[in-house]
Task: structure prediction
Amino acid sequence: MTFEQCMADAAQHHRVSLGNGVEPFARIAYDAELLIKRDAVAKFTASLKLPSSLVDAIVPAPMPRGYRTTSRRRVRVRTGAVELVHGDGSTADGASPLEPELHSNIYTHLTAAIKRLTPPMRQVLNHMILRGSYEEIVLIINVTELNAGVVRSLRTMSEHLRDAFPQVQHAWIYHDPKGSRYYLDLERPATGVGAKKLFGASAWKYAIGPVQYQVGVFSFSQVNLSMVENLVAVVRDHAECTTDDVLYDIYCGYGLFGAALASSVQRVVAVDGDEATVDNARYSIRRAGGTCTALTQVIRSGNDIDAIVRSLYRIARKDPAEASNVVVIDPPRSGTAERVIAEIASGLQPRRVVEVYCGPDEIYRSTREWRQAGYGVTRVTPVDLFPGTTSMEFVITYDQGAVVAAPEPRSSPRPTSRQGQPPRQGGGRWRR
Result:
């Protein structure tokens, strides 16, 4: 069963209508929401044939309403009237119960400011985005056209906003000539100027205990910052790292898990596809007292994991699999790409893997692939990272040898050597 089906069944059992909105629980008591989610998690994990003894209780949110540190509005101009609406075009009058009241106040100010712009200037505006922390806010203005006049006009508007709301410490323009419905369009043409700073810096900062993070203004960050400390604690508890371990933080982002575990391990290998994001991860991990090898590598298939292993061999001149490795992997909602799991298992041979699932429906496929690679589930923790919605984050530990299962044969044999590179033998290990 899909997690959505399990959630719908649990809501029906508790006589709660989910409706068609993305925040169906936002206006009910959080205790009632947790009861529904508890039943949904139990049904979902049972459908995955995961023993209930391995499944922890849901980790609740400390701030279940007003928590969103990322919000956005789309600019709609009709016959001279200006309105900031939700991404689906629905009215955004008043704040969502999941957004801080401060965001609503800022959008009200922006609506009035946009009305004072000239009609041609209004037409280039696509999205208004607020992100950052509860104390330090980044304004991103998504535009379809970028020139000197647009920059001057929007700089004046954003500086007036900063005067009214000192929490707005950074302002940037993001150029999206297609006018995409996605506020940070990953398919934006590579030519031309992609972004322009109006004021502030290229990153914002926040701390969890002694660890300070630096997050790029356009980098992915969790929308529920109040819950991140709990998420980090869960991952740390699952990983059980020692100072003998090398930690692989794959899809590391700005180094959330790598920096949190940096002082507990021998070294952190941080991997992500965006160079600026990887730079921030390196900064955060080293600032936390860790030793870091940071690699920029887009992970589209198992070949990319193979490229990472080869890079590490060239750096250290030794087989990465010879170390005591722990992998923390936090892929996008769509999950890992083809053969990524198999290549992590063969190339790194980690003793333990902790996978963070934003999309619960990827758990079945991913668990099957880990099982084929010789790793079994030993612990499951549901984390209510998105209270008010039907989404749920899952943290799952896979231990090497916990389940004895032969991996499926490959469609074609892999070469034992490659031109100009050392051979791979014996379970994927490098040999000199």
